[in-house]
User: What shape does this take?
Amino acid sequence: MTRSRVVRWTAGAGYYGVLALVTVAALGPTLWVMLSSFKTSGQVLSDPSLLPRPFTLQGYADAFSQVHLERFVLNTALYAIGGSLGALVTAFLAAYPTARYDFRGRNVVVGAFSLALAIPVVGLATPEFFIVRELGLFDTRIGLVIFYSALFFPLSFVILRAFLVDLPVEIEEAAIVDGAGYFLLLRKIVLPLARPALATAAVIAFVGIWNEFFFANLLTGSVDHQNVQLALASFRSQFGFNVSGALAGATLVMLVPVLAFLLLQRHVVEGLTAGAVK
Amino acid sequence: MGRSIALSLLPGAALWATFFLVPLLVLVYTSLGDWGGAGFKFIGFDNFSRMFHDAVFWKAARNTGLFAAAGVLIQVPLGCLVGIILAQHIRGWRLFRAILFIPFVISGAAYALVFSLFYNPRYGLLDRALGAVGVTTDHDWLFSTNTALPAVAATFVFILGLIVVLVMAEIASIPGELYEAAEVDGASPFQRQWYITVPLLRNVLGTIVLITVLGYLALFDLVFILTKGGPDDATVTLVLYAYRAYSNSAWGYANAVGVFIVVTGLLLIVLIRRAFRIGERAL
Assistant: This one.
């Protein structure tokens, strides 16, 4: 072998060695838990081996029949879909004029909306709680939808505005010449063109809201309005007697954002890159 | 036109004002008060002086700093290394990028459940795996004061997906001629990465450090569910500390901690942006 081939072979082995190690460290425990969700509770509590023996779906049946996981899934789907829509609609309406028109105070508006991204919102827990309560929205589904719309408004705004600033203006100009008004233009021309950025912001908001724990905990009081993350946190006590049910529930809750990501991977990667660079 | 623009900005501005601006103003004002079930009384900076004299607050600040340090010193270099490797488009790079992104979209609550089982001394994988290689242990990793914090940190330092994606995007923007010229000059693959890629990553590295540090400043879900900040406050974070005060209806005090968190976050943004000269082009 020539020296350069030795170097290349060593580098290749080193690369895959590093990748194998971090992959095991990053996903090993999660995969083990997912596999364990097909074990009986007895096996989970006595035998940490990787493969279920016997293989059973009892945990999955229990997750629905005992804890009624479907109630939390429905709540969470409502929060994630409603909150993403709310964030997207408001952010799109705000991003367009700040990307296209040079009006007085525009830079102040852009700065103020973008700066909201820099605030660690969890530090605002008490004020958020009292504002939501004063608005009569505490422990209501609509309250969480509105709150999540606000929570993901700044990031959606930044992503959509970055996209619209780079969008060629000619098509809109042609429509304006044809006499289209502002909102007609927005709906018929700009909205379809902005679809890639909207998809990006939507999947990031959806996954973020699906996984949200802190404010779901802060802004709900009754079990009826809890999301899946709160349900997961209480699984350990609720399932004290049924650990395989808890693992089955956790597996299902994890799979939703993982599938959303794998299906829309390209959008997530582009959006996070754009959002981070701004 | 002006009216349409105003109308268009209105819904977003309303959300922004209601859930960012007003809470921020309320936070700052009420941090100066004794505010609890019995009402509100202005007390100046008493909450802050109490906070700075509380040993648990300093423990929370120290732990939050240690978690952030684990992120910056372990997670970030590891993510950059993997990003540099995958950016060379070795066989299977798409697959590895996708797989390594998965932990990033798994929630803190789910992660907490995974690791409460993984670390369990009786039926967890970790102690059994250690047993299999001859280290017999039934150590309770999460409930011993000396291992709880590293055990919690170890759950998230391998979440590399976002860092990998950002590093790869930045490398993709480096002109290929630079590498070709270096190869012609006889630079080894390692030298090419070390002398070309690494210096040009400064900008994105700053962004990554910023995102990482701000993420750990807000760390709550995982520790709240996994350890409740224990044992003996060994894993309590700033947000968890504020949450405890909030739960005890010490709202003014909780908001003083909140002000500390927000101000720290803004200071860190300024400092990190300056340290990495973010915004100035590297090339």
Q: What stands out?
A: Chain B touches chain A through 91 residues (CB under 8 Å). Chain B has a mean pLDDT of 91. Chain B is about 70% helix and 5% strand.
